[in-house]
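FORM 7B - TANDEM STRUCTURE REPORT

SECTION 1: FIRST PROTEIN
SEQUENCE AND C-ALPHA CELLS:
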Amino acid sequence: MSIKGIIFDLDGTLLDTLEDLADGVNAALRDFSFPERSREEVRHFVGNGVRHLIRQAVPAGTDSATLSQVHGAFMAHYRENMTRKTRPYPGVVDLLESLALSGYSLGVLSNKPHGATEALVRHFFPDRFSIIMGHKEGNPRKPDPTMLLQMVSDMGLKPEEVCYVGDSEVDVATCQQAQVAGAFCLWGFRSEEALKAAGAGLFLDEPAELLAQLLAGEVGL
C-alpha cells in the first residue's frame, strides 16, 4: 500500500532548536546556581520531553520539588525566546512544499509541550500541516504509539499508509511500536550509528531525499 501521509518529529527533524533549548536550560540552571550544560550535552538530553531534559540537566540527586522549580524556570525562559535562534533545517521548507503539492497529508508529532509545538510550527510553517500534536498532560509520550496512531486515524489513513520522519532512538521505537514506516534524518540530534543500533533502516542525508524515496516506492514496511 502506498504512503499517503507524512508525520514529522519537530526538534532535530524540521527545526534546529538546539541553541534555544540549550540557552533555556542554562538560564534555568543559573537561576538555581547549578552548573551549566554544554550544547552537546543538551543535544543528548533532548527527545523524551521537557521533564526528562531538565532531569538530565540538573545535578544528580536534585530533589523533586527543586526539579519542578527548574522545569518552571526553563519553560518561562523558553516560551519567551524559543524563536530567537531556532531555524528550519536547510531544505525543509522546500520539502514540505513539494510534499504538499504532491498530495501528501502532513502532520507533526512531538514530545515537546503542545503549546510550544503548535507555536513553533505555526510560526515557521504557517498553514502547512493539517494536524499538530505536542505533549499534553495525561497523554503518553513517544515511544508509546498511542498518539501517533491517533493522528493516523484523524488523518483518515491506515498505519501502513503513513511514514513517520524523526531523528532519534525514541522515534525509531515509536515507528516500531506503531508499525508504521520510518525515515530517519542524519542532520538531527543523533548519529547514524545510534539510529542503526536502535533498529533504523532508512536514512535521509538531506530533506529532498524523502520525496525521491517516496516516489521511488522505497518507503514502507
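SECTION 2: SECOND PROTEIN
SEQUENCE AND C-ALPHA CELLS:
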Amino acid sequence: MALSFLVPAPAGAERTAMVDYIEPTGDPLDENDLLLVEVVLDRLNITDSLPVYASPIGLLIPVGELSRLLDADLNVQLGEKRIVGTIGEARRSVVADLPTGIVRVDGNLQLLLAGDMIVGANDIYVRTSLLEKLLPIRARLDPAALRLELVAREPLPIQSRLDRLSRLRGLQGGGSAPNDVYRVKSDPALVTMPSFDVLVEAGAQERPPPYPYRYDVRAGGDLLYSNFQGYIGSDQKGRPVTARMLLERRDADGEALGPLGFTRASAGDIFTPALPLGARSLAGRGISLSTAPLTQTSIFGRVDLRGELPLGYDVELYVNDVLRSGQSTPVQGRYEFRDVPLQRGVNIIRIVAYGPRGERTEDVRVVNVGGGQLEPGQFVADLGVAQQERTVISFPSRDSNVVAGPGVGDMRVTASMAYGLTENVTLAGGLASYSPSGGGERLLGTAGIRTSVAGVATQLDGAVDERGGTALALALAGEWMRVSTIVRHSEYGGGFVDETIPRGGDGRALRRSSELNLDWQLRPSKGFAIPFSFRMTRDQYANGDRNWAGLLRASAPVGGLYVSTGFDFERTDPILGGASNRLSGLISLSSFALFQWQLRAAVDYQLLPDLRLGALSLIADRDVGESTAVRIGLGQSFQDSKESTVQLSAIRRLSFADLSLDAQYSRPRNDWRLGLQLAFSLVHDPLGGGYLPRRPGAASGGSAAIQAFLDDNGNGRFDRSEEPVPGVVMAGSGGEEIVTDDKGRALVTGLGYGTVAQVRTSLDNVQLDNVAGPPPVLEFTPRAGTVAVIAYPIQAKGEVMITITVRRGDRKVGLSAVNLRAVNENGEAYEARTEFDGSALFDALRPGSYRLEIEEDQARRLNMRLAEPVSFTIGAQGGPAPDVQAMVVFE
C-alpha cells in the first residue's frame, strides 16, 4: 500500500499569496556598516570573523555562513531568493521565500516584513528577529565587544559534531563584500563528452534467478547546443528493459530560444502539458515548448510531480510539511506523483529521497496557487506533441515495469494558452488531439476564465470534442471560518472522457464529478499547531457506476519525532453488483535522533471490511565515521504469510564511489539474499583529458573544472608561460573539500540542475604572498552532466594608502567620509572611504595603473573635486605602493 498524506497551510495562506513584498529602498548592505564579529554559542567560540551589517534597518546576519558554522541544515538558494532546510531531530521544515513574502517554520506561516530578508550576491542576510524563527536560537549583539551571542533553545548539530568546525572554518574567507561573485558564462555547446552515473548490483538469493545482477546508467552532456539526458535500466538478468532520452534547452530570460520568448524547449521523451478539462499531462516521445517562467508556478488545485529515482531509493512527498505520498519502485528510472492536491495560497512542496547507503536529499518547491491570473498583457503558452506512452528507445518484448493506459502509441497534441486581460481577469484556452479510451483519437477544444468574485478565486471552464462530448467545470477557492476550502464540480455529456480528474485515466466516460478539499489547524497550546486536511471526491460514470474516495490527514512534531497519521476511504458502487467499502490507516514516524541516527518507522492497518494489521517497518541509518555507515532494517507482515524480514548493510564511501554490502533474511520461508552494490560517476575532465571516477550524481547535475593559475599578463586566460596554483580550496557537494592539485586543477561535481550553481573558494592554503584571486564565489548556469570550464586567475596584489586633504587657511587637514574609487585601465573599480584623518586604504589591487576618482554622486552633491588628477601604479610583484596625497577643492 502506498503512503498517502496531506497537510494544509495555516489559515490565512491565501492572503499571504496576495501580499506584495516591498524591499527597503537604498542598499542595506553598505560596506560602511560592515562589522566582523565574534560568534559565541553557549560560551563556545564558533568564529572570530563573521561579517554582519549594522544597517539602519537592523542587524543583518548571513544565513548561509552562519548555518555552515553551526552545521545547521539550512540551504541558501540565491537564484530563487529562498532559504530552505530542516531543524531539530524531527527535521521540522524551514522555508523563507522572498518572492512570495512568507516564512514557514514547522507548519506555522507568517509574513516577511520589509527588510527582514536581504539577498546579497553570495549569501542571504536576515534580521535577528527572522534568524530566531529560522533557527532554535536566541541572538544578541554586544556592540562594545563586537560579539554575537547565541543561546540554543534546543540541541544544535554543531554541539554533537564539534570536530567538523576546523574544516568548515576553512571556507569562510573572513567575510567578503556583497558583490564578490565571479560570474562565468556557460552556454550549451555543439557537443561535449557526456558524464555518467552508474549503479551496478550483483548477488545471490534463494528465489530465482539465483544470481541476479542489474544496472542503472544515467548520462548527461551537451549535444546540438542543448542539454542531453539519457537513462537505461536492466532487469535482474542484466537485460535492458527501459530507456529514455531527452534534449532540453532552458533560458530563464526567454531570449535565446527565438523571438516568441520560449523559456524551455524539449525533444525526446517529454511530458505533454495538461488542459483544465479532457487531456492530462502524459509521457511520450515528441517535442514540447513553453513560455512559462522557469521558477514560477501558478495553478489551481492539483499538480503533477516527477523526477529521477535511482535503484534502491525511497522518495517521500511532503506538502506543507506533512507526508502526502511515497514511492519506492522506480518506473523508467523516475518517480511520479500525479494529481497532488494543493490549497489556495502558498504551498511548500518537499520531495525527500532516502538512498540505500544512508543518503538523504531534499528538493523544495514553492507553489503559489491562486486563481490562475496573469499580469495584464502577460501571455503564457505550452505546446506538446508526443506519441503517448512510447519512448524513443523501446524494448517491447520485455517487462519494463510500466503500466500503460488506453491509447498507447497514439499521437497526442496539446496546446494551452493564457492571457492576462486585466488585473483580475485572465482568459484561458486549449486545443488537444488525444486518445483517452483507446478507441481512436478525438479533437478537443477548451475555453475558460480565471477571476475573483467577492474574494473567492473562481475558474470556469468549458470543453467540447468532435464526438459530441461536452464538459463544464466550476472551481471555487477561498476561506470560510479559518478553513481553506476548494470546491470543484464538473458536468459531462455525450460520452466525454476527462483524464484530469484523479480517477479519470481509465478511459471511461463520465456524467459528473465533484471534489471538496478542506484544510485547517487545531492549536492545543500556544506555539503548537496540528494541521488537518480532508478531501472527498465523488465520480459518476456514464454507465451508472459510482465511486467515492476520501482521506483525512494530520501531522505534527512530538518531541524529537515527526508523526504523521491518516485514513483512506473508498466506496465502489457499480450498477451491476453490490457496493464495497474500504477504510485503511497509516502511522509514520521519523527522527534524526541525537543528530546521529536517521530513523524511520511506519505501520499500516485496515478497518474495513475487517479489522487487521497490515505491515510494520523500521529503518535506522548511522554514520560511524567520515566514510563508513551502517543500516539496520526490520519488517513484519501481518497478512497471510506473517513474514518477518531483517536487513543489515555496511556502506563504505570511497573518494570515487559508494560501495555497500547488503544481507537480507525472511522467515518463515527462509528466503535469503546477499548483494553487493557499487555506485559511481564517470566525468570527462576537459582540462586533463580522459574520464575520472567520482561520487554518484555527476550526470544528473552540473559540474565545474577549475584551473587556478598566476595570471602574469592579466588577460584572464591560462597561458603556457604562467604557473598553476595548487592549494585553492573549494566546497563541493555534501560539504566535502576539493583542493587544486599541482597543476592547479580541480573538478567539482554534484552541483545540481537549478537555475544557478555556486562554488565557494578560499586562498587560505595557497603558499603565496601578496596575491589575490577572483571573487570567492564562482557562479554559473549548470546543465545535467556538463562540465563548465572556469579559469581562476590569481594575480599579485598590492595596496596603497591614500590621504585626502582640504586647505583650511594656510594648512592642510584630513577630510573624512570621502567616497573614493580606484579605476584601472580595464575599467575595474575598487572603492574605499576615508577615515577621520582623511586616510583610506586600497588593498587587494591587481598590478597596473590606476586613476583616483571621487564617487560621482558625492562629488556632485557636495560640489567637490580633486584639485588635480591623481594616479598611481601597483608593480608586477604586488606589495605596498608609495603613499599618495591628494587635495580636494569645493566649488
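SECTION 3: OBSERVATIONS ON SECOND PROTEIN
The radius of gyration is 30 Å.
Confidence is low (pLDDT under 50) at residues 1-23, 162-179.

SECTION 4: SIGNATURE
Preparer initials: ____
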